[in-house]
């Protein structure tokens, strides 16, 4: 696949899932009014719970509450610094760092217990947790439409072609009898045996008349075939027969029953999603550079993942091994990151490693997360989250990764490859039409970050709503 070769769809206004501006009044009546009230009281409850957490500390700990907070924060900083030291050093420093990592929370519990404040800390922490939960619930209700719009699956596929990997997911293809069930629905099934060029298989299938491509296998195989489907502008179907099935999760498919995904052939709808491109190869989840890619690219990794990772990380984190990377976007330059993740749309709040989920894969942007940590002190700064100095989080439509080596190891949807430097990453908005079952588990609402300023506005006094006709008449009288 060559850069820019993917088809890019232009959505008509009726397809975007955005409500008609003229329907705003209707949205504010009935369920909308009740939803506003629930959101209002959830915001108020979050402030009440946060205040109670502070009151419990002040009433039962007094001035000692300041020391309690200091001990807790100090333990968190020590744990982060110790975790980095354990990963970036070998024995005996690794064992000492692990001991410090384990001892920090135990020390906090012992100190609180001897001071007779353990129950105070637990109650206050529980109240803070409840305050955060209610705050996120209130903010989630106020989010704009987070669901990807559905589109009619027309025309229905007359010649679906499905590629199945019988080894993927510990043998899910055979365990769920996917081949027989798919063929009963009129699909042609290709079973992978040994090393197979799935992109070539998909191209041959289209040349033979296939009008829908699908994959029962891992995300790496999904990405390759999805790229072919996008090139030829035909629907693509995901069958959750892989090990982790991150792409299926983000599409709201049933990961526990891969056979349920076959319902898309008889009663399906389409989702127009973005597809990423790295060095001319498509990806559906993410492309990773740096430490993770270097580890996965090592031959010994397949035989002993944990031992290989622990053996290589010290040299990688200290800059003694691996390519020195640089990333360039239109608005920012990132120099010498130890790990760089380029994702097809942003993951959920608080997920920096691409292990969570994406509520939408149609925002038309790449999410870029870079980690540059040179010391345990800087690692402790990760306690500040996205504001940490060793962390860069941004979005872009293109990013170019260069290195001081002619080739760069890259993990593409979990599979290790080596690409010639520089490597260009891009996003192709709406280029992939994914056919999914009409009835499926769906995607959970994304968890928004807690914004206390926004919550304060939600918790404030609510102005009474007047009737639209009366308000408009009054406005005309004032204007006259």
Layout of helices and strands:
Elements: H1 24-27, H2 31-61, H3 64-88, H4 93-114, H5 118-141, E1 151-152, E2 160-164, H6 172-175, H7 178-184, E3 188-191, H8 198-207, E4 212-216, H9 219-232, E5 236-239, H10 246-250, E6 268-278, E7 281-283, E8 286-290, H11 291-296, H12 305-317, E9 325-328, E10 333-335, E11 339-344, E12 366-371, H13 376-380, E13 391-396, E14 398-403, E15 407-412, E16 415-420, E17 423-437, H14 452-459, H15 468-479
How big is the Rg? 26 Å
CATH fold-type name of the largest domain: Tumour Suppressor Smad4
* Overall pLDDT level: 84
Low-confidence stretches: 8-29, 466-480
**Assigned CATH architecture of the largest domain:** Sandwich
For the biggest sheet, the summary is: 11 strands, mixed
What overall geometry do the principal axes of the alpha carbons give?
globular
Report on the architecture of this protein:
The protein is an alpha+beta fold and 480 residues long. The chain folds into three domains: 31-141, no CATH class; 151-283 and 433-437, 3-Layer(aba) Sandwich (Rossmann fold), CATH 3.40.50.10330; 286-430, Tumour Suppressor Smad4 (Sandwich). 40% of the residues lie in helices and 20% in strands. The protein is built from 15 helices and 17 strands. The protein has helices spanning 24-27, 31-61, 64-88, 93-114, 118-141, 172-175, 178-184, 198-207, 219-232, 246-250, 291-296, 305-317, 376-380, 452-459, 468-479; strands at residues 151-152, 160-164, 188-191, 212-216, 236-239, 268-278, 281-283, 286-290, 325-328, 333-335, 339-344, 366-371, 391-396, 398-403, 407-412, 415-420, 423-437. The strands form two sheets. Strands 1, 2, 3, 4, 5, 6, 7, 9, 10, 14 and 17 form an eleven-stranded mixed β-sheet that branches. It has a six-stranded antiparallel β-sheet with strand order 13-12-11-8-15-16. Strand 15 and strand 16 form a beta hairpin. The termini are far apart.
């Amino acid at each position: 696949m060559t850069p820019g070769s993917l088809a890019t769809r232009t959505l008509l206004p009726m397809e975007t899932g955005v409500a008609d501006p003229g329907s705003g009044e209707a949205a504010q009546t009935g369920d909308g009014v009740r939803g506003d009230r629930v959101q209002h009281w959830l915001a108020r409850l979050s402030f009440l719970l946060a205040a109670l957490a502070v009151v419990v500390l002040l009433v039962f700990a007094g001035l000692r509450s300041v020391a309690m907070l200091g001990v807790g924060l100090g333990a968190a900083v020590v744990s982060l610094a110790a975790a980095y030291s354990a990963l970036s050093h070998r024995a005996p420093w690794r064992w000492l760092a692990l001991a410090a990592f384990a001892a920090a929370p135990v020390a906090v519990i012992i100190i609180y217990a001897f001071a007779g404040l353990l129950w105070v800390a637990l109650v206050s922490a529980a109240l803070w947790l409840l305050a955060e939960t209610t705050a996120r619930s209130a903010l989630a209700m106020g989010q704009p439409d987070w669901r990807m719009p559905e589109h009619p699956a027309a025309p229905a596929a007359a010649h679906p072609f499905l590629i199945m990997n019988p080894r993927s997911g510990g043998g899910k293809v055979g365990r769920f009898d996917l081949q027989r069930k798919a063929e009963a629905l009129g699909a042609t099934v290709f079973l992978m045996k040994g090393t197979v060029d799935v992109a070539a298989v998909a191209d041959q299938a289209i040349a033979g008349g296939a009008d829908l491509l699908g994959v029962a296998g891992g995300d790496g195989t999904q990405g390759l075939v999805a790229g072919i489907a996008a090139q030829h502008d035909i629907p693509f179907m995901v069958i959750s027969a892989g090990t982790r099935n991150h792409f299926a999760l983000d599409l709201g498919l049933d990961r526990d029953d891969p056979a349920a995904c076959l319902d898309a052939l008889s009663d399906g709808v389409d989702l127009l999603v973005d597809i990423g491109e790295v060095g001319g190869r498509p990806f559906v989840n993410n492309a990773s550079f740096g430490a993770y890619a270097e580890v996965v690219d090592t031959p010994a990794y397949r035989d002993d993942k944990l031992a290989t990772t622990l053996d290589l990380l010290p040299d990688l984190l200290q800059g003694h091994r691996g390519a020195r990377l640089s990333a360039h976007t239109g608005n920012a330059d990132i120099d010498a990151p130890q790990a760089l993740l380029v994702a097809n749309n942003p993951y959920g709040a608080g997920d920096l490693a691409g292990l969570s989920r994406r509520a939408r894969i149609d925002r038309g942007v790449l999410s870029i997360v870079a980690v540059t940590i040179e010391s345990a002190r800087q690692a402790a700064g990760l306690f500040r989250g996205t504001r940490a100095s060793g962390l860069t989080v941004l979005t872009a439509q293109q990013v170019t990764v260069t290195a001081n080596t002619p080739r760069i190891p890259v993990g593409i949807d979990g599979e290790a490859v080596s690409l010639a430097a520089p490597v260009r990453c891009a996003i192709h908005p709406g280029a992939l039409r994914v056919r999914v079952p009409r009835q499926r588990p769906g995607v959970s609402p994304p968890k928004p970050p807690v914004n206390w300023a926004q919550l304060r506005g939600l918790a404030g006094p609510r102005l009474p709503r007047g009737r639209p006709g009366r308000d408009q008449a009054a406005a005309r009288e004032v204007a006259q």
